[in-house]
Specification:
Structural class: mainly alpha
Order of helices and strands: HEHEEHHEHHEHHHHHHHEH
Helix content: 55-70%
Strand content: 5-15%
Number of strands: 6
Strand order of the largest sheet: 1-6
Distance between the termini: 62 Å
Radius of gyration: 31 Å
Shape: flat
Length: 436
């Protein structure tokens, strides 16, 4: 019995020893493989390096997010546009002093938040003047020096972009101070506090407008177009005098029966002009890379679409322009259908995914039109809103595809990732060196 127990103990020791040896072997193999790590390199084209201003010895920050790699300067200050303090504070100080003097001349000891002579109206008017002025000056300086993104923007686009920015400022201020007026009913501040508020608001708007002029791109113009159309229409819906406007049609917002018809029509006019400016900007590079009649046809179809949007606001659905308004609306639909059908041939290097999406959206728009005409299921307003949402969404996708094509070789480059084996010694990261 004792012999059998000893034999069992010896067998257990052998099994344990074998397991220990196997575990040690696995660990040694892991560390042996770790000695030959892989390093990946990316060859950056010379043109791309010139555009970034990076040097071979510069230390960059690599950010990995959602299958994307972003390289940028390691210092946050190097990533921001160089905007000097006095560029936006000096005009704000001058106008704030003007506001203070005006209030003293009117014998106002306290200033209300909203109203005729209020912080809202004063800051909106002065911010509008100052913001647009610094935007125009910054745009002209960078354009003449040819050292910013404005070099690809035509001079004729400057008034349109400026007015669009001004309208967005007005819409934003109106909504913001309307909300403040509801939250702080009949609130008033002394003249010194009010002047401080006005100064801070003007300085903030100046900074944003200077930053906009220094970083202006097709993506920003697209965002301005989106904010312009959606914000302007929502503002017209909220401020119109007829609450049951939706029982008529979508064009009712621009008629004389609506008190907010001016906002709606101006929004459409300058949205069309802003779209023309965006098409101008995109086709500067696209026309050089893809010359030919097809690219020209795409450009003029987009011009026609933008002109129809502007003309709908220029000729509202009043009795005087009713027939012309309807004709222009139909031309807008016809051009959209031509674009969807012909996009396979007139858009360079169109992807299959975008083609399928275009045909699906076109089919849905056609089916909705048939349902509206035959089944009388949708109201006229619902039909127009759905058609507008589908058409505008597809138009934004088309402009995004054109933007990608235009940026290729200018802001987008094809690169290859190469791998090579290196030793297991890994270089410490900056934060590791700081901790040690």
């Amino acid at each position: 019995m004792i012999v059998m127990v000893l034999f069992a103990i010896l067998n257990i020791d052998k099994i344990y020893l074998r397991g220990t040896i196997a575990g040690v072997a696995i660990v040694l193999r892991y560390f042996w493989e770790k000695k030959t790590l892989k390093k990946y390199t990316i060859e950056i084209p010379e043109l791309a390096m010139k555009k970034t201003g990076f040097k071979p010895s510069d230390q960059l920050e690599l950010n990995v997010n959602h299958n994307e790699i972003t390289l940028r300067p390691s210092r946050v200050t190097d990533q921001l546009p160089k905007i000097r303090l006095y560029w936006y504070t000096l005009p704000a100080l001058v106008l704030a002093i003007t506001f203070f003097i005006f209030c003293r001349e009117q014998h106002m000891r306290t200033v209300p938040i909203t109203g005729d002579y209020s912080i809202a109206n004063g800051s909106m008017l002065l911010s509008l003047v100052s913001g647009l002025l610094v935007f125009i000056v910054s745009f002209i300086v960078t354009k003449l020096n040819n050292n910013g993104p404005t070099r690809n923007v035509y001079w004729r686009s400057l008034p349109t972009i400026t007015i669009a920015c001004g309208l967005i400022i007005v819409f934003s201020f109106s909504a913001f101070f309307w909300l403040l007026g509801k939250l702080f009913v009949a609130a008033r501040f002394d003249i010194y506090t009010s002047t401080t508020f006005v100064f801070v608001i003007i300085a903030a708007v100046n900074y944003l407008m200077i930053n906009l002029s220094l970083t202006l791109s097709s993506g920003i113009i697209t965002n301005l177009l989106t904010i312009m159309i959606i914000g302007g229409m929502l503002f017209s819906m909220l401020t119109n005098s007829t609450r049951d406007w939706w029982k008529h049609n979508f064009s009712f917002l621009g008629t004389a029966q609506n008190s907010a018809n001016l906002q709606f029509n101006v929004t459409l006019i300058f949205s069309g002009l802003l779209m023309m400016a965006l098409v101008d900007y995109l086709f500067v590079n696209l026309q050089q890379k893809y010359p030919g009649i097809k690219t020209q046809l795409l450009r003029w179809l987009l011009y026609g679409e933008a002109a129809c949007i502007a003309a709908i606001g220029l000729f509202p659905n009043n009795p005087k322009f009713h027939i012309l308004h309807d004709r222009i609306s139909m031309w807008l639909v016809y051009i959209m259908l031509i674009l969807i059908v012909a996009i396979k041939w007139i858009l360079p290097e169109v992807t299959r995914q975008f083609l399928v999406l275009s045909y699906v959206i076109g089919s849905v728009m056609g089916a909705e039109y048939i349902i509206f005409k035959l089944a009388n299921y949708l109201s006229l307003t619902a039909f127009e809103l759905i058609e507008f949402a589908l058409a505008f969404s597809w138009l934004l996708l088309l402009l995004q595809n054109i933007e990608n094509l235009a940026q290729y070789g200018e802001q987008l480059f094809l690169v290859k990732i190469k791998s090579e084996k290196i030793s297991a010694k890994v270089e410490k990261q900056p934060h590791d060196k700081a901790n040690s």
